[in-house]
Write a structure and sequence with these properties.
Blueprint lengths: L12 E6 L5 H7 L3 E6 L10 H7 L4 E7 L11 H14 L2 E5 L20 H5 L1 E6 L12 E4 L2 H14 L5 H12 L3 H23 L13 E2 L10 E2 L2 E2 L3 H12 L4 E2 L9 E4 L4 H16 L3
Parallel strand pairs: 1-2, 1-3, 3-4, 4-5
Antiparallel strand pairs: 5-6, 7-11, 8-9, 10-11
Amino acid sequence: MKFLGPSAKKGDQVLVPTPCYVSYAEQIKLTGATPIFFKTKEENNFRPTLEEVKANLTPRVKAFIINSPNNPTGSIVEKEQQKKIAKLLVGRGVYMITDEVYEHLIYDGRNHISVASLGKKEKEMSITVNSVSKTYAMTGWRVGYAAGPREIIKAMSNLQGHATGNVNSIAQKATIEALIETQKPVKNMVKEYGKRREYMVNRLNKIEGIRCHYPDGAFYTFPNVTALYGREYNRNIIKNDVDVAKFFLEKAHVAVVPGVAFNYSGYVRFVFAKSVKEIKEGLDRIEKAIKELK
């Protein structure tokens, strides 16, 4: 069985549920493979299902990308669904690339489940990707790491060594300390994020024209804004999520990311990593601006 590497065969595909992180498509294309996207459903809180994976799996799919908790939705793939999906993919010889950057930022008593922990076969077919950027607030340090089959990690290391410079030694030492020392600050941070999540989702759902699900993890919300379509401001008609983002920026001076950036139109991404005071001010501005729409 041959793994998908830097020189993918022509026609190789990578299956990606959407909404998905903005860089996945271009990273896949850099290998020579083709990204194959399929849409998850809002009513399932944007969690991919076995049926959706099965319906979009072709003989040319070599890898499946799963991001749990997800950016931009914050959704988590529950253990039983992960087991079903993993069983299908292992049976088809499809590798699972799992982006677990937000593994510690989880709410409502949920636990993070890594696909590689589900069994020996699942571990052999998994490449787990992680980072210290979100959990330890070290975004500027640019430190990430991966775990997987030896031959794949070796190929990744060889490619990286010829593509970019190395992480500086100070960042490496800081990362080790972050990983092995007490995780109490992380738990305190997650507790605070939980309060901000509660406030933001409640406020968004009270604003006319916006509908928002509770995210399971991360620090994003991904509300539906299609009810704002067709309305007018400054002789501009809102036609899509890009127009909504533009409207929020121009009239409320609040920046959001349109869903189309994540291959999922009709939604925008909010971030609740700011203080409650700042979140309140931003949502107050948005609510005021929406009330002034024609």
